Amino acid sequence: MSELSFPYPIPEYGTEPYWAACNEERLVMQRCQACGKFRWHPAPLCIYCSHSGYDWAPLSGRGRVYTWTVITHAVHPAAVARVPYVVVEVELDEQRDLRMVSNLVDCEADAIQFDAPVRVAFETHASGQKLPVFRLT
Ligand SMILES: [Zn+2]
Question: What is the pLDDT, as a whole number, of residue 57?
Answer without folding.
Answer: 98
